[in-house]
Specification:
With 491 residues, the protein is an alpha/beta fold. The protein has 23 helices and 8 strands. It is flat, with a radius of gyration of 27 Å.
Length: 491
Amino acid sequence: MFDALSDRLESAFARFRGKGALTEQQVEDGLREIRLALLEADVNFRVVRTFVGRIRERAVGAEVSAALDPGQQLVKIVHEELVRILGEASAPLDLGSRSPAVVMLAGLQGSGKTTAAGKLAALLKKRGRSVLLVAGDLVRPAAVRQLQVLGERVGVPVYAPVTTGDPVQVARDALHEARRLGAGVVIVDTAGRTTVDEEMMQQAVDIKAAVNPVETLFVIDAMIGQEAVTVAKAFQEAVDFTGVILSKLDGDARGGAALSVAEVTGRPIKFASVGEKLDEFEAFHPDRMAGRILGMGDVLTLIEKAEEVYTEDQAQDLQSKFLSAEFTLEDFLSQMQQVKKMGPLQGLLGMIPGMGRALKDVDLDDAQLKPVEAIIQSMTTQERRDPKILNGKRKKRIARGSGRSAQEVNELLRNFEQMRQLMKSMGGAKGLKGLRGMDPQALMAGGAPDLSALTGAGPRLPVGAGAPAGPGGPDRQLNKRVPARKKKKRR
């Protein structure tokens, strides 16, 4: 997400680092880089002009010239203007007090409306709301069936009385069905077209008039680029939407639509679809997204994801094990299985400040964890808790049981020990919760930790320099205590 934009902005900021003062020409050169970065990310050119103009107005004044570190101050200004262009404040879904509360989705065909309806239903159900999905897209082939499948996966009912006909009547009847079922929220999926046309717009207007939604959400494909402004304006004039859902944000390294639609329409982005799975759907926070774009990570979202998976007692127990280096392979296996519930590994680690850049050239896939799981699961409980007992014979048995090689078993043990030392050294942050109130730029100042021990890539720590070799591994002989040489007696 925003990879290309992040790289270009990082290149622009690099020229300001370590400067005692910034001349007007240096600021202009930096702004030129920022302008090109935004245009390459498919941000609308009018939005780019406004954005760069605001930065120039603040950057050439006393705000930067009087700063102790002009480079950092300029990054701070860019961050604040990014937050502003993304909508400034978070805008949660407002369901009001009416029951059932109707949420209507509108957008072009292929924008991801039906999938967004399923994801929104999953999110609301997770929050304890009873939801009814309504199949109002009676134009696209199999749209009704797609919504029914999503409803089954989420575990919410779908009102789909017909596959062709009048969607306005379907939406109107859905309100009676919602009252019969006791559903508190009704999500209406609507038809789209490949381009904006009057028939589609009129249908959306009629559905809105029939159900009187508390929220009308415009779903827009993050990969749409420059056309985002034209499409958004057309829908705003027709249905006057109250908020935006950004879909397919994981599929585009540019994401220009995100930086255009809120600025142009004045309507907040409420949700972002960040993956293909139904639970990869997040409330949109402008300040957090700006942090991700600038490589500052998104610690708060990471904490929220962790809190959904871990109880308070589990988190405290895990933290104490990290700090005391008593973290065992049994704990490691358990944590890997928990982390999988939080989302893709690459995305999670990218939320840690500075980590996105450190992981840029490292291919991290959840599938890479499977061999590790197989090796640990082939161990006995005692072996997981005390890897020091693993001799050559035990390792061969584990390798056969997991379908891996003895070398891979040794590699895992070595990397695990390095990871324990790394976690112990990072323990001073008092766990993720200790990062809540910290400035992302301050977190980045210390640089990203070395991930070679976690990924199996890159250089190994030498034996005796910070982390010992794997217990009983090929370096075992190096760990033997060498007897001290006896001093010769002087005559």
